[in-house]
Structures are given as structure tokens and as C-alpha cells.
Amino acid sequence: MPSSSELPAPERVMVFDLDDTLYLERDYVVSGLTAAGDWARARLGLDRLGPLMRERFEAGARQRIFDDSLAALGQTATPALVARLLAVYRQHRPRIALATDATRYLDRRDAGTAVAIVTDGFLDAQRRKLRALDLFRRGVRQAVCTDRWGRAAWKPSRRAFDHLEAAFGLSGASFTYVADNPSKDFVAPRQLGWHTVRIVRAGGLHAEVRAASAGDEADRIIESLDSLD
Ligand SMILES: [Mg+2]
């Protein structure tokens, strides 16, 4: 990954969240459940587990999908088995693609604008998503996985945002953060004086989430990255 110091200094930095901002997180979940189901079929002979887990997710289940699906097939969901399924899920190679408006944005941005990413989530999984989306080849300068510093650095922590200000040698209003979840995404960037934009995608897992307080909501709400300046 090129370090920002080897490249010309940008005038401004557009920082994006990853899940449900640049691609649809549900595609990742389906991809991961398929990988876990394939593992269960090959290792345990459980042909129905993958389809059943995907059906539960599509029906709205967000918790205990492994446990409940195993139980529905008459299997004991031992902690070791659930941990193994979770490891396969987090370590699979995701079959995901950038949203078409995200591709258009990365292709049309001007030369004075650098692009970076701040994403929460388990380090292994987030790194595999970044690779699958080929974001560095598309000109993303810095991708910060908050989990590299541990769980305490996940949003709403300021850690990743402070890190980017130092890395680019810019501050405050030179930055814009574009993300989808007002319960955590905009707290730190607002404290630092960044511009904030919430994207509400059809099919986004947090499309219905409301900010805990008006002060946590973004300055602006859009439905497509085509609306970004
Ligand atoms: Mg997100």
C-alpha cells in the first residue's frame, strides 16, 4: 500500500465507511453464510445448513443464525462448532462488488481529492472485503480498519479519524466522512469539525436507524453517491 507521503498533498479528503456505504453488506452476509454452509456440507454432511441460514437472514434474522439453524436441523450447536462456522464466515473470500454509484464516484473524482476509508468490524473480515473490492487499485490512499487497535477503537472512537488527520497533514473541514449508520458513524467526525454525509441505500441494514440525538446525525443525507460534489 503506498503511503500518503509518496503522493502529492491533496486539498481535501473524502473518507468513506465500507459496509453499506461502498457496497451492500447483505451481499457480504449471504456470501459468508454460503461459505459456512459449504464447509458444513463438506465436513459434516449438512446439505441443508447453508440454504437454511440464508433463508433465515433473508427473513430478517440478525442474531444466532448459526445456533438456530443447527438446532432446526437437529444438530447440537456446541460452542466449538459455532466458533468454527464463525471462523469460516470471517475468513472466507467474499463475493461482493462495489455499488455502481461508488464505482462512478471513484472514477470521476478530481485530482485534488484523496479518498480514504474508515471501517469497523473484525480485522480479518474487513481486510478481505477491501481486497475483494480492489480498492487500492481504484485509487484509495488509506484504508483504516479500526480493529487494528482493538475493539475500543471502533466507532464512535476518534482514533481512526485522528490517525487520518495526521497521515494527510490536514484537519477539520478538509475532510468529509460518508457513512450509513447514524448511531455511531458521525460522532467523532463531527467533534473534529469534518463535513458529514449519510447515505441511505435501499437494502442497507441500517437504513431505518435513527441517530441517538440530533447532534449525532450527518449534515446531509443522500441516497446515491452520484449526489456527492
Ligand atoms: Mg456501514
Automatic annotation (TrEMBL):
Signal peptide: none annotated. It comes from the Bacteria. GO terms for molecular function: hydrolase activity. The keyword Metal-binding applies. The keyword Cell wall biogenesis/degradation does not apply. Keywords: Hydrolase, Magnesium, Metal-binding. InterPro entries: HAD-like_hydrolase, HAD-like_sf, HAD_sf. This is HAD family hydrolase. The lineage of its organism: Bacteria, Pseudomonadati, Pseudomonadota, Alphaproteobacteria, Sphingomonadales.
